[in-house]
Amino acid sequence: MKVVTGQRPRMHRVLFDLPATMIIGGIILFASFVLAFFPSLFAPYDPNAFDYGALLHAPTLAHPFGTDNYGRDMLSRVIHAYTIDMQIAVFATIVPVIVGTLIGAVVGYAGGLTEAFFGRVVDAIITFPFLVLVIAIVSVLGPGLINMYIAVGIIDWVFYGRLTAAEIKVQKRLDYADAGRVMGYRPSRVVFRHLLPNAMTPALVYWMTDMALAILLGSSLGYLGLGAQPPAAEWGVLIADGKNFMTTAWWISIFPGLAIVITGLGFSLFGDGLAEFLRTRR
Amino acid sequence: MSAKTDGLHVRGLCATFETPRGPARAVDGVDLDIAPGEVFGLVGESGSGKSVTLRALMRLVHPPGRVEGNVAWQGRDLMAMKPEELRRMRGGEIAMIFQEPMTALNPVLPVRVQIEENLRAHTDMNRRERRARALELLDIVGIPAAARRLDEYPHQFSGGMRQRVMIAIALASSPKLLLADEPTTALDVTIQDQILKLLLDLRDEFSMSVVFVTHDLGVVASLCDRMAVMYAGRIVETGTVSEVFATPHHPYTRGLLGSVPHGGAERTMLASIEGTPPGLASLPAGCAFHPRCEFATDECRRERPALEPFAPGRSVACFHHERVARAEELA
Amino acid sequence: MSDDGSLISVRQVSKHFDAGQSILSRLAGEPRAAVHALNGIDLDITRGETLGVVGESGCGKSTLARCLVRLHDPDEGTILFENRDIGHLKGGARRAFNRRVQMIFQDPYSSLNPRLTVRRMLSEALTVHRMRPRGEIDGRIAELLDLVRLPSDAAERYPHEFSGGQRQRIGIARALALEPDVLVADELVSALDVSVQAQVINLLLTLQEELSLTVVFVAHDLRLVRHISHRVAVMYLGRIVEIAPTEALFSTPRHPYSKALLDAAPDLDPAKRTRVAAARGELPSPLDIPPGCPFNTRCPYAFDRCFTERPTLDPRAPGHRAACHLTEFAGGLPEQSNEAVAERQKEENRA
After folding, report:
1. Residue B128 lies in a domain
2. Of A112, A185, B132, B222, which residue is 20 to 30 A from C95 by alpha carbon distance?
3. Does position C111 have pLDDT exceeding 80, yes or no?
4. What is the model's pLDDT at position A1?
5. A129 touches chain C (CB under 8 A)
6. CB contacts, 8 Å: C158 with chain A
7. Is residue B242 part of a domain?
8. Three-state SS for C245?
9. Given the DSSP bridges, would you call strands C6-18 and C76-81 parallel, antiparallel or unpaired?
10. How far apart are CA B320 and CA C243, in angstroms?
11. Residue C19 placed within a domain
12. Which of B25, B52, B230, B282 to mutate to test the interface with A (most CBs of A within 10 A)?
């Protein structure tokens, strides 16, 4: 039964129809980005200021997340870490998203030998565990955030490429793709202007999950000393700072850990909701 | 009404579905009388409610859809039947065939098992008798090399053959009423022709009534004894096929017949109906057809015409049906 | 042949598609399975005519349509457009060809990009082919919408806001934006309701007159094909079995398959119903086409020659050709005399 609607749904209808997961995830992510951009507005102390009068204080009203072994305020450090960790989420994934999606689009459209070759490249890369491969590349390039981005970039694009290629293969069989060809449009126009916007949903949804994974990865490398370097506040580094005091001063590691969990949850919820939203809209 | 005990008698059948825009009446007060041995055509376009009517008869509308009304089969009330009784009725005295046999057949069972299953459920035959009957049924529906094909799976059959298998399964219980939901729409024209002719033969052989839902007027003309035309969930015209085709009294019927090219007037404009069928959630006031009707007056915009008899065996729901019939004679 | 004023000439065109086959069976030396979608099609399309192409599923009519606009390239044979082989067109020349030979698609739901408004869809076509200077594009879009009888506010809407019939009009407007000479319509109305079909058919007829278009109308619905075509080609298993002016084909089909097809189409006159099926049996698998005449498995008149020798598409009357060994077969004759024709042919054959 097709219903011909006279007008497009109004804005408040759209907001009303959004999946709850998307709204909750959106709120978490919005708050995270605000903290990332303006940490000083919310952090009560300088995150790097030593206070030898308040070493390893348990959470109190003055220091809600407690202090570390240099007397630095953990709340301020966790807040300031948002800047680096959200940056990792975006910067580690942005190049893979773009490159992977574009390559996937071309591969999916071309098919044939190109696709077979791409398939072997994907197989070769995903045979190795992701973390092990990143660690290997970072140890060659040397520790640091930039090298981590490079390492992730070398591997991560294949996931987007694979998702997009599969979706393009579905779209290119639809009549509107043929219509574009019959209209005399160049293949590049058919792929990038017509097919790709209709084929980006899986990559877009995966991107949300991937940003959460990037934060986990960044924290793991930070913990291992291969990512962000101390004294920079980064959740993985903070957790590593606290590892020697785990039994006596649990708050040093626990609160950064919670920040990772909550931000990751935000990305996941938003991604789930986005998938549902894009699926039901058509 | 209650005096008639044989055949199918439907009164005030309604099927309602909840939609985000409020309840939608897919079927709205349908009355039908189908005599034993009669082939009855239910015609309409997509969204007219013809398929839902068929399902509602068998209470096959899934919740939250609701069905109301009276459906009497051989004097028994289907709407008041207990689930157990109804189940015996379905696929027993009343069988159903669908447009897409692939979804109605079980893909992982050979057709023999599916036919014998129905025989076990609805007859007292023993194992040997069932085997023999299954073979016989495939023969009856015209499947060549039936003995060999009994052990094949649905996907090994072509579209037309699958439809024959589905008919064979439906016939297993020797039904007295066959409900057919566009069973030939997906088929090629030569195969459709074979299946239609087969249905006519089976009607005679099993002396069943058939209710045949279709959008194809040609199929109605070549198959059915009587017909009803549906629009926006209601019956707008009924009568014998030859009478309705000769002088349609409802402007929609007239428009439908004019929309189909007749030989002899090549490359001329067809008498099309302007506009598109309305959505069920936003039916126009008055007669649902009035926005597309060239005969419409203020009365049609205000009031909904009831389906009323105007000649023996003919009914129409239109205030201006006589003008429509005259226009048809002039044309 | 191609100098006789025909706009498009199809010469001995064949097209196969590889059927899915396991590597194991390939290694076992089994021959490559291929669906023979087109087998040596010969066809001339004259400027300004409507050629109907009719046949059942799997007869290759859609493949032929797609070859005409170069969505498929034939494996063998050539297609000439104004005496030039379209298979050799590259780059700009190919785009110029596609501007002049346009296609309208069957499925109103998948043939329009869901993310483009009608305006963007049309303005893209107009700008890519530089049909109009920038400033005149909006005016041209209004003209096109008017041409296909869509309201002018349709331009700002997305495909999902339209009904099936309206979407087909958008598809037509998109094709017409390029001011083509030829429109190839593949099952243009088969997804639409009957009452809406008539609207779209009327539109196509009007546009053809107004814009002097050449139309290739591919469909399975004989009534529609008869209504709008000047000439009709009947296809069966990748071959044209008969081609004739519409009236001749519908009054005296010269191929038993054409006759079966006509008889099988349900007649709109309830008085003309019969109880005899028009054709027996089913379509053989296109993977395994019988030798001889492809229709021999279902033909009531088939005799020994039909199983060994493939009939060629030979003239029967002016403009009327059929591929059948029964050269005297005619649909208008009573059944008995056609049987007599078949008997006589068998006798001659033995002699």
Report:
1. no
2. A112
3. yes
4. 35
5. no
6. 8
7. no
8. strand
9. antiparallel
10. 46
11. no
12. B282
**Is B280 in Cβ contact with A4 (below 8 Å)?**
no
pLDDT (0 to 100) of residue C195: 87
Interface check A204 vs C, CB under 8 A = no
B306 in any annotated domain: yes
Residue A75 clears pLDDT 70, i.e. is over it: yes
Name the DSSP class of B145. Answer: T
pLDDT, block means (10 residues), chain B with 331 residues: 73 88 88 94 92 90 87 90 87 88 84 91 90 92 89 89 91 92 90 93 93 94 96 95 95 93 84 85 90 93 94 95 88 68
Asked if C47 has any chain A CB less than 8 Å from its own CB, the reply is: no
Hunting for tokens 């069957």 — which residue is that? Answer: C106
Host domain of residue C310: 253-351
Considering only alpha carbons, which residue of chain C is nearest residue B221? C270
Q: pLDDT for C183-233, tens place per residue?
A: 999 999 998 998 899 999 999 999 999 999 999 999 999 999 999 999 999
Containing structural domain, residue B316: 250-261+284-331
Q: Is residue C325 part of a domain?
A: yes
Q: pLDDT at residue C263 above 60?
A: yes
In the CATH scheme, what architecture does the domain A29-38+66-280 have? Answer: Orthogonal Bundle (1.10)
Give ipTM to 2 decimals. Answer: 0.89
3-class SS shares of chain B: helix, strand, coil, % to 5: 40, 25, 40
User: Is residue C172 in a domain?
Assistant: no
Q: Residues with Cβ < 8 Å from A10, sequence gap 6 or more?
A: none
B120 in a domain, yes or no? no
- Residues of B within an 8 Å Cβ radius of A: 21, 46-47, 276, 279-282
How many structural domains compose chain B? 1
Distance from the B298 Cα atom to the nearest Cα atom in chain A, whole angstroms: 25
Task: Identify whether the C-beta of residue C50 lies closer than 8 Å to the C-beta of residue C229.
Answer: yes
pLDDT given at position A6 = 40
Using the CB atoms, write b or e for C32-64: b if 16+ within 10 Å: eeebbbbbbbbbbbeeebbbbbbbbebbbbbbb
pLDDT of C22 over the 70 cut: no
Count CB pairs under 8 A between chains B and C.
136
**Across the interface, which of C247, C270, C279 has its CB nearest the CB of B242?**
C270
> Could you give the 3-state DSSP secondary structure of residue A57?
coil
Q: For residues B47 and A99, give the distance between their C-alpha atoms in angstroms, rounded to a whole number.
A: 46
Q: What is residue C21's predicted lDDT score, i.e. its pLDDT?
A: 60
Give CA–CA dist B48/C301, Å, rounded: 44
Number of compact structural domains in chain C: 1
Provide the shortest C-alpha distance from residue C283 to chain A (in Å). 26
Distance from CA of B66 to the nearest CA of A (A): 18
Report yes or no on C70 lying in a domain. no
Using a pLDDT cut of 70, give the percent of chain A over it: 93
Which of the four pLDDT bands, split at 50, 70 and 90, describes residue A228?
confident
Contacting residues of A for C153, CB less than 8 Å apart: none
Across the interface, whether the CB atoms of A183 and C128 are under 8 A apart is answered yes
Which pLDDT does position A58 carry in this prediction?
86
